[in-house]
Amino acid sequence: ARVVGLLAVIAAPVMLLGQDSGPSASWHQLGGPARNFHVESAPLADVWPASGPTQLWSRTLGEGYSSVVADGETLVTMYRDGDDEIIIGLDADTGATRWRHAYDAPLAHNGYVDIWLNASGPGPYSTPLISDGGVFAVGVDGAFHALELDTGALRWAHDLVDLFSLNEYNAFASSPLAFGATIILPLGGSGHGVAAFDRETGAVVWQSEPFAVAPWSPQIVHVDGQDQLVVVGQQELVGLGPEDGRLLWRHPHENELGLNLSMPVWGEDRRLFMSSAYDGGSRMIRLSQIDGRATASEMWSTNRMRMHFTNALR
Question: What percent of the chain has pLDDT over 90?
């Protein structure tokens, strides 16, 4: 497990906030504005002082793997403190707590003990999402909360295990994704696919057909004018319609343990790269529209690169 702490230095606006360092700077989701881990910013300094960049502040939070997301002067992340999971809003300039939302999250909740918790620590694993004035965060055992960004006040909450009757699942690790007026989230490491929720009310807008979803996070790609939701399955890649969850395509990407953890990499040339460990290897898939039907065709594959926890950059 990892103890989460934050260290702010003079380079923080470039590293954390992305496109500019002013009040409008934002990094709202896992992977940044385009969910591709690229930062559009002025170049970093060619030379640092011998003592390193000036530290503005630092503070210890707690245990977990969540990244930091940012909107203007507010930073948001989550962590574990004993039997509680914490979603917290911090002042970017000082590190002071702006708000803090704690909820009871004992690891025996719902009666499951997952191997992840023994090998990787109790989480949380996912990164919160900031969207249209709200914060959306899912805990290791399916506690899904929507909070107000300014105050941390509760907008709505779900116990996803109870809501979808998830009898068998792994820890929730996927980070939420915004699309239109909905928030999209895979349903843990379960066989129940993906669901979309109304951003304001939490009502379920759609649920995909069942398929075994992997721990990593979904993303939106644009193919010949069509928005597509790419979801990593335990043994495949799946394309869904993000407005209604309908199946568009699926392509095998098998591995020995069903642990496809690395996020796919999308390019404007309609190429989708995927890599995983446990003998999964790497493959390049071309997405296209043929006679009005979304298709996925394999261009090449190799077992020489097998990525596990890390993400590729194009």
Answer: 63
